[in-house]
Write a structure and sequence with these properties.
It contains eleven helices and 27 strands. By secondary structure, it is α+β, with helices and mostly antiparallel strands. It has an eight-stranded antiparallel β-barrel with strand order 4-5-6-9-10-13-14-15. Strands 1, 18, 23, 24, 25, 26 and 27 form a seven-stranded mixed beta sheet that branches.
């Protein structure tokens, strides 16, 4: 048994020397030298091995940002009431005063930040002791019903404070990602300390021989509850409503009597915040250091015949600038599932919200660009009919995914489907295939690249010969298509059956049902095609494409993991190989060429015993 496990470990580890592997729910890292690799394996087999676990596919986990990222500036105006020892002596409206605040802040994580602010206003109320804050003439006070004299009170001030800020919405529900349709309403809590300066009265230690109390400068505590409303997916601006309390020790109004533990200004304000670029965070993607992963598999069951270690491979090919990072299964409960889109989706999987508005503009020839657009929920690619008659799925047949934006074609589609399909508009760009939110602002090398005009059937069983001829495969590799695996996991009836092979589907199902899956591994690829020419262009392009390659692998392997077809395989046995060079060199300016399409993919390798 020990020899069998030892042999498997050698195969698993030495076969992946060029990569670092990141597990999705748990990372089991071991940094080793090549010469000491066998010694490491032997030591793991000789004693119990308890790996350190670290979550990585957690929606709450992000990469902390650089110092100049995620700053914001804001301003607001409002009204507050001053509550002191004798604020109840007069009418409530006579305790109200205006104030304004400006400030600057920075988020360190989506849920935690700091801010500093400057404010100015005045406090009005009442006092039963004559002080420099009293308004009127000392010898002519107002008189309460019980005969107690009192005066109106007013003091002008400015203050500064420093606060820690908690974004409650993102603490509870996580950061929503770039250009997301979520978290348009956010709740923030700020807690801080500050100092206030009274600037309108000359305070002295004694007056006519009578002492009075109260400093000209003093500390206070600041508490704010803020509601922010965003109106665009960029979340650059927010409209803010705040409930604010400034809490002072009881002598703020110069009263020598500690009638209450605190004097305070309590108010409400409205304002706006601008979030300075760079705003947002990246998800956790490993760096370039090479690590070797050692994972001790479960004991191999004793069988009458010696089992064989086997593997099979399949590729999932993606449209340009698409990885599924904003769709299910990466984003739980999203309307669009990336694998269902690739298998049987339509166009960009988006539609115009108002049919009547589209019909009117098509008739008059007015642009559709300003109309509202929303996602069309995907369906499993096992539907029995395709009444729309349009190409469905990416690289499934010889028909390209993109549709024409002319009135006749759109109307014919609406007559059958009940809605008008929509492209993705971004500034002067019109994307005619689905893309990630993070890539929609990218300018491509050619206008033609925003539309799919060619399809090689790479995701279908019929395209395996093209894949085998052009992709780096080891001799004897058992290769299936994405359509074959999709049909085996989801169902081989209906639409997907046109592009899968029944014998291949049955073989995959037999492996899943009667074999023992040992490990599932994904590797992502993206092309070198990037047209960014600004500051640090090369680094920006590499970061974009590394993110695409990572999320292509992530989307595919999370789909497999959540399919429920892999028995009792642990989450730790699903992994992503983060290649040292996950970017394929493509010199062709077209994103529609075969080489470009082949390098936009995730390669999945499944190791099993049977």
């Amino acid at each position: 048994m020990k020899k069998t496990i030892f042999t498997f470990l050698c195969m698993l580890v030495t076969g992946n020397m060029y990569a670092q592997i990141e597990n999705l729910d748990e990372i089991q890292w071991r940094r080793v030298e090549r010469d000491s690799l066998l010694m490491k394996i032997d030591s793991l087999l000789a004693k119990d091995y308890v790996p350190k676990l670290q979550p990585t596919d957690d929606q709450y986990r992000v990469v902390t940002n650089r110092f100049w990222d995620n700053w914001w500036v804001y301003g607001d105006i409002g009204v507050h009431t001053f509550r002191g020892d004798w604020s109840g002596n007069g009418k409530f409206k006579e305790t109200l005063s205006p104030d304004f605040t400006v400030g600057i802040g920075k988020w360190f994580t989506p849920g935690f930040g700091i801010k500093g602010q400057f404010g100015m206003g005045n406090s009005r109320g009442f006092t039963e002791i004559w002080t420099p804050y009293a308004v009127g003439i000392e010898n002519t006070p107002m008189v309460k019903a019980d005969g107690t004299p009192y005066w109106k009170l007013k003091t002008k001030w400015w203050d500064i404070n420093a606060n820690v800020v908690f974004n409650i919405s993102r603490i509870l529900y996580a950061w929503e990602g770039y250009d997301s349709n979520e978290r348009f309403n956010q709740l923030l809590l700020s807690l801080g300390i500050g100092g206030v300066h009274h600037y309108d009265k000359e305070l002295k230690n004694k007056k006519w021989g009578k002492p009075y109390y109260g400093p000209k400068n003093e500390w206070y505590g600041n508490v704010e509850l803020q509601y922010s409303r965003f109106f665009t997916k960029a979340k650059a601006w927010s409209l803010d409503v705040k409930l604010r309390g400034r809490f002072y020790e009881t002598h703020y109004d110069l009263s020598p009597i500690a009638g209450h533990r605190w004097d305070y200004n309590l108010g409400v304000s409205i304002g706006a915040t601008y979030y300075i670029k760079q705003r947002g965070w990246e998800r956790c993607i490993p760096g370039d250091d090479i690590n070797y992963f050692i994972n001790v598999p479960a004991p191999v069951p004793v069988v009458q015949e010696c089992p064989e270690y086997r593997t099979f491979t399949f590729y999932v090919f993606y449209p340009n600038n698409y990885s599924g990072r904003n769709d299910a299964p990466v984003v739980a409960d999203a309307d669009v599932h990336s694998m269902d889109y690739l298998a049987g989706g339509i166009f960009t999987q988006k539609k115009f919200k108002s049919n009547s508005a589209v019909a009117s503009r098509l008739k008059s020839g007015v642009s559709l660009r300003s109309l509202k657009i929303e996602n069309v929920p995907t369906e499993k690619a096992t539907f029995t009919e395709n009444p729309t008659g349009v190409a469905r799925g990416y690289e499934m047949s010889s028909r390209p995914l993109s549709l024409e934006m002319d009135a006749d074609d759109m109307q014919a589609f609406e007559d059958v489907a009940g809605y008008y399909y929509a492209p993705i508009y971004e500034a002067d760009k019109t994307w005619c295939y689905r893309i990630d939110n993070e890539t929609r602002t990218q300018t491509l090398l050619s206008r033609d690249n925003y539309k799919e005009t060619t399809s090689y059937g790479l995701n279908a069983h019929a395209g395996l010969s093209t894949v085998r001829e052009n992709m780096p495969l080891e001799e004897g590799t058992v290769l299936y298509s994405f359509a074959d695996v999709y049909a085996a996991l989801v169902g081989d009836e209906g639409y997907i059956s046109q592009f899968s092979d029944r014998q291949a589907v049955d073989t995959i199902r037999d492996i899943l049902e009667n074999g023992q899956i040992i490990h599932v591994q994904a590797e992502g690829l993206a092309t070198s095609q990037d047209n960014y020419t600004g500051e640090n262009a090369e680094a920006v392009g590499q970061d974009r494409n590394r993110a695409l390659s990572h999320y292509r692998a992530f989307s595919a392997i999370k789909w497999l993991r959540e399919s429920g077809k892999f028995g009792e395989l642990n989450h730790g046995d699903f992994s992503i190989n983060v290649l040292s060079e996950p970017i394929g060199r493509v010199d062709d300016k077209s994103t529609r060429g075969l080489k470009a399409k082949l390098n936009r993919c995730a390669r999945i390798t499944i190791k099993y015993i049977k």
